Amino acid sequence: MHVFNGIEQLTNAITTAEKIRPRIEFDRFGRYRVSGIKGGYYTGIYRKDHRGIKAVECTCKGGEQGLVCYHAAAALSLHVGLARQKTAA
Ligand SMILES: [Zn+2]
Question: Cα of 7 to ligand 1 centre, how many Å?
Fold first, then answer.
């Protein structure tokens, strides 16, 4: 599990996601499937730990190593939007 403390890494991942523009499929709140460059889908999972820190997991190789990959970055904006709607409701 990776905690969002590397702003630079996250910024790079967002830049990559904007270039690649992967397809994002909603699975359920906090869980999204994101298309990979070579086909197939990876699953990005977002959650808060017991201290309320946002963390993300991805099923790709980078994610397994604790890196913020572009899959995670691509689905993050969707997740943040949904989380805002939830809080507002
Ligand atoms: Zn990934």
Answer: 17
What distance in angstroms lies between residue 59's CA and the mean position of ligand 1's atoms? 6
- C-alpha distance from residue 50 to each of 38, 75, 81 (Å): 35, 22, 22
pTM: 0.81
Classified as helix, coil or strand, 59 is coil
**Distance from residue 12's CA to the centre of ligand 1 (Å):** 13
Element (DSSP H or E) covering residue 27:
strand 24-28
pLDDT tens profile 13-31? 999 999 999 999 999 999 9
Q: Which residues of 3-33 are buried (b: 16+ CB within 10 A; e: fewer)?
A: eeeeeeebeebbebbeeeebebeeeeeebbb
Rg of the chain over all Cα atoms, to the nearest angstrom: 12
